[in-house]
Amino acid sequence: MKILVLNCGSSSIKYQLFKMDDLQWEVMAKGGVEKVGLKGSFLKHEKASGEKVLLEGEILDHQIGIDYILGVLISEKHGCIKDLDEIDAVGHRVVHGGEMFNSSVFITDEVIKKMEECIELAPLHNPPNLKGIQAISTLLPDVPQVGVFDTAFHQTMPKHAFMYAIPQSLYKEYGIRRYGFHGTSHRYVSHRACELLDCDYNTQRIVSCHLGNGASIAAIKNGQSVDTSMGFTPIEGLMMGTRCGDLDVGAVTFIMEKEKIGTRSASILFNKHSGMLGVTNISSDMREIEEAYEKGDENARLGLEMYCYRIKKYIGSYAAAMGGIDILLFTGGIGENADLIRSKVCENLDFLGIKINESKNKNLRGQEMDISSSGSRVKVMVVPTNEELVIAQDTKEIVEQLANRKIQEP
């Protein structure tokens, strides 16, 4: 089965074409469209062989962008399939599923209506996700589509973990609660770690740290997410590249009053100009901050100390919530590649049974590895995430179930 996975952002479209067999899979091609609707738009395409091509063009909207993608997939020079009929299904990343979706779903008109109801919960993310679905409906009308939601994995959180201490009427009226994000990533790496360690996923207490420009931590107990650091929106929780993370609501209103700014400006301030960028005044890119730190920059030192301290606090709190921890995971662009961050986070966590092997940790970049020391009670793992594979796997499973159901119908 050949499955096209799409991740549509406001001005970008990432894609991968998978060939999925029962026991094996391969990426036939991958790439992305950038600057959709803007000047200088282009498509980057890479075949399984590593051959790369950059194609420039006027890409006014998501449908044109996806049409470009389909065109390059079947092109004689750069393609990997001969005809679009070879695409058996399309899987879409959808950021917010609210309380309506606790698992991946086959996309129907009714599902699209429910997804549209979630737009106010993710006004920046869900609309482009829906544009991708609508584009495929137009360009490949007979191809089944599946939606995989970032929030779905966290729908197992108990009510005492996802509720905020605000009037319940606000939850009932507007759905204001903790939803959590990066669920597809947390699901993949937690499963994968247990595969690598040859242990039962449904008996482990796992703390999964997805550290990238956006960052979140999940507490996974006996195969279910029981808490996570991101909340109603992705701004809550850890200090991130440009997001402030946890912040006193009183400080928010105080700043708005003193700076005489409204909600839109406040949102931009705390989402785009805070976090590591705001504290260091250097960059939101951890690599540049680490370079400054090595040169003795005090703002970079403060930023790194704050960043790692907050991760430590969440690890400790989730160990307390789960009654201990068996596996600590690092993933995401920073989690997979920043040995300095992993080292600082794990420093002085011996009381939890967390000890890492610094020689294994040093210079480890984007590889699956157990970096715990021989005396560590907790397995400390680096597991590169693969959200696209999860989307492809879910899509394959759902489409096959539907096909089997139709065969069995009298």
Automatic annotation (TrEMBL):
Q: Which UniProt keywords apply?
A: ATP-binding, Cytoplasm, Kinase, Magnesium, Metal-binding, Nucleotide-binding, Transferase
Tagged with keyword Magnesium: yes
Cofactor entry: Mg(2+); Mn(2+)
GO terms under biological process = acetate metabolic process; acetyl-CoA biosynthetic process
Q: Main localization of the protein? A: cytoplasm
> Which domain of life does the protein's organism represent?
Bacteria
Could you tell me which pathway this protein works in?
Metabolic intermediate biosynthesis; acetyl-CoA biosynthesis; acetyl-CoA from acetate: step 1/2
Tell me one GO molecular function of this protein. acetate kinase activity
Q: So what EC number does this one have?
A: 2.7.2.1
Binding sites annotated in the UniProt record for ATP: K14, H210, L211, G212, N213, G214, D285, M286, R287, G333, I334, G335, E336, N337
Spell out the Pfam families in the cross-references: Acetate_kinase
Q: Which reaction does it catalyse?
A: acetate + ATP = acetyl phosphate + ADP
UniProt site (Transition state stabilizer): H182, R243
A GO cellular component annotated for this chain's UniProt record is:
cytoplasm
Looking up PANTHER family in the UniProt record yields:
ACETATE KINASE, ACETATE KINASE-RELATED
Task: Describe the task this protein carries out.
Answer: Catalyzes the formation of acetyl phosphate from acetate and ATP. Can also catalyze the reverse reaction.
The record's comment on protein family reads: Belongs to the acetokinase family.
Protein name as annotated: Acetate kinase
Instruction: State the gene name recorded for this protein.
Output: ackA
